Q: What sequence folds into this?
């Protein structure tokens, strides 16, 4: 059990590298630096948004913190327990408390299984760890969960392909919440859905969070979706966190040039408030050989010589530990660009 002062999840200097092998002798040629020293705490009932372009390591981070990928280095604590130090059986039991919602429900739901069987699976995997020990009790509970996520009871005997994208994501959500977890890692849960359906699914997630005191880590590639749901946001670039702040603070006072570019890319519905869009040149560099110094320097419009050699630490802005940025010149740059944000 964790008290209010203990984070539900605490990750410290987490790294996840994927080795690359090749050549005649299948030698180790290098590593993909997917997650490169990420630290943060998440408290019960909170939503942490993790934002960044494709390839920035955010999905790997989500899987590494659930120990679906064993970390290369660093620590993941859940309710104060270091997941690396516990026996596999205990880790398996703890997984009941940590679930995941995937981007594409069609890929994550077995098309050969009925919705009833899909939702029964977690109860069977975690047999003996809950009160639903008979098929009858499980069916009653699954019908209740279907109702909870806005699906008809008749969904029980139907198959995933018979549902729309939004309904399939509701099935994915139902599976994730079936065992009443504490933490749900949501990996781009609405990006494959039509805009009109996105808000319905987000509303459902917000309601479930309130009712079940869920903690979300909400991964997304743009800030507009996360703005709606997150209490705090970590902006990631090439495996590192470049800015970490409360949602309001991040939108009002984005300190990192990359965050500023992401915010300027959010469409402004009011034409009278038209803002200057900051277009980032080039693509995200390869995580196999990230640029030295500040990883962002080849694309940063404010880069200087120091940035090419010196990696900036994630440090508090104006002594405020709740707003941290990894940029040598953040204050000066914010002063220059703030009128255009
Ligand atoms: Fe840009 Fe330098 Fe700041 Fe990196 S440290 S974001 S390159 S100004």
A:
């Amino acid at each position: 059990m964790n008290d209010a002062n203990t984070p539900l999840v605490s990750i410290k200097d987490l790294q996840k590298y994927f080795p690359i092998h090749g050549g005649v002798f299948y030698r180790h040629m290098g590593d993909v630096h997917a997650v490169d020293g990420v630290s943060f705490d998440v408290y019960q009932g909170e939503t942490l948004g993790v934002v960044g372009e494709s390839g920035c390591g955010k999905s790997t981070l989500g899987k590494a913190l659930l120990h679906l990928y064993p970390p290369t280095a660093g620590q993941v604590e859940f309710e104060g327990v270091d997941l690396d130090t516990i026996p596999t059986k205990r880790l398996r039991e703890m997984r009941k408390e940590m679930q995941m919602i995937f981007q594409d429900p069609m890929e994550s739901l077995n098309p050969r299984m009925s919705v009833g069987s899909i939702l029964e699976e977690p109860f069977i995997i975690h047999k003996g760890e809950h009160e639903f020990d008979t098929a009858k009790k499980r069916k009653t509970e699954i019908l209740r969960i279907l109702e909870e996520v806005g699906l008809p009871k008749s969904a029980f005997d139907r198959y995933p392909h018979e549902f729309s994208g939004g309904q399939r994501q509701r099935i994915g959500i139902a599976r994730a919440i079936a065992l009443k977890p504490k933490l749900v890692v949501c990996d781009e849960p609405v990006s494959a859905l039509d805009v009109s359906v996105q808000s319905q699914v987000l509303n459902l997630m917000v309601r479930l969070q309130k009712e079940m005191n869920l903690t979300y880590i909400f991964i997304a590639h743009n800030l507009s979706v996360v703005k709606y749901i997150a209490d705090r946001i970590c902006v990631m670039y090439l495996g590192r966190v470049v800015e970490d702040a409360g949602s309001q603070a991040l939108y009002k006072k984005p300190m990192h040039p990359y965050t500023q570019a992401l915010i300027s890319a959010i469409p402004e519905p009011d034409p009278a408030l038209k803002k200057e869009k900051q277009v980032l040149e080039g693509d995200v560099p390869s995580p196999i050989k990230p640029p030295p110094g500040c990883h962002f320097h080849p694309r940063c419009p404010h880069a200087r010589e120091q940035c090419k050699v010196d990696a900036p630490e994630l440090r508090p802005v104006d002594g405020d530990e709740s707003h941290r940025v990894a940029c040598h010149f953040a204050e000066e740059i914010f002063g220059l660009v703030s009128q255009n944000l």
In short: The first strand starts at residue 9 and ends at 22.
